[in-house]
Each structure stands twice: as structure tokens, then as C-alpha cells.
Amino acid sequence: MDLARGGLRGRRRAGAAGETVSQDQKLVEWFLGDEEAAKFMSGLFDISQSADDFADGEAGEDAAGLMASVLFGMVDGMALNPFFVANRERLAPMLIDALMAWKLSEELESGNLTEKAWAFCLRDSLERVLVGVALIKGGFVHALHVQREAFNYFRYVHADGHGFGAFVEEMEYNK
To answer: Is 105 within 8 Å of 167 (Cβ atoms)?
Structure first.
């Protein structure tokens, strides 16, 4: 998300049969055309990635700048987002749960293979928020459809080679 302008960023990934699919276009589709819901989710993905980079010591030379962009995104991209404002009572528990799952995944990454497997699962907790947004927008049946489609999208279309095997190799390398 372009935090300075509050707009959707056109991240593009290869889709089926060579077609190009934007993650942000999928969010708008999954949220039944609600661009504010899509901006909220896109911003959440960006904020969480930046926060994870910071926690993993990957902030580079401008750690303060990265943290400032995270905090700005939390206010401008989320707290002031009309979709979030209208649904904050339903979204806040999902966000807290995702935060707690991320923290546990960070702890489990250095454990045995079983703990690494759980860490791999828990790090994708933002997808549960995505399904929760789909539930708010379209109800239970719609959320079930989005859940499966998002699972496939993030595992096969948007995976960037980050399957479980690559995850375990990375954890072994970082010991």
C-alpha cells in the first residue's frame, strides 16, 4: 500500500495460464468490490511485513524510518480506514489473534521440526483476518469460498517459492 497516498499498490503475480493477477485486484474481488476493505487488508499485509522485517533485524540502515512507516500505516492506513472504523469491534479480536500467532511463530521457528511446522502455519494468520473480512462483506458461504481461493492463491500463485521445505531450510540456515 502506498501509505503516503493511502492507495492500493499493484503487486502483480503470475496467474493461471500466464495471466497476470494483482494481489490487490484479488482483494477487491474477494471483498465484493469494497476498495476500502481491500486497502485495509493490503495495508495490514504491508505493515506486518515491515514489522516482521524489523523484528528479524532486516530493517537495514534506516530502522527508524521503517518503524515510522509501520506506525504511520497503523494510523493512516488502518485506524482511519472507513472499513476498519465501521467494523473495528469485529476486526480488533482478529488482529490481536493474528499478532499473538505471529509472536508464537517467531518463538517456534528455532524449535524442533514439529515446532517449525507450527511456526510455518501460524505465520499465515493474516489469512484468517482476510477470511474474516470476507465474512463481514459477504457472509458465511462467501467466506468459505474466499478461504479456499485465498489458500490456493497464496500457496500456488503468490507463493514466490516459500513452501514449507524452503521455510525449514531457512530456519536451519539461520540457527
So the answer is: no
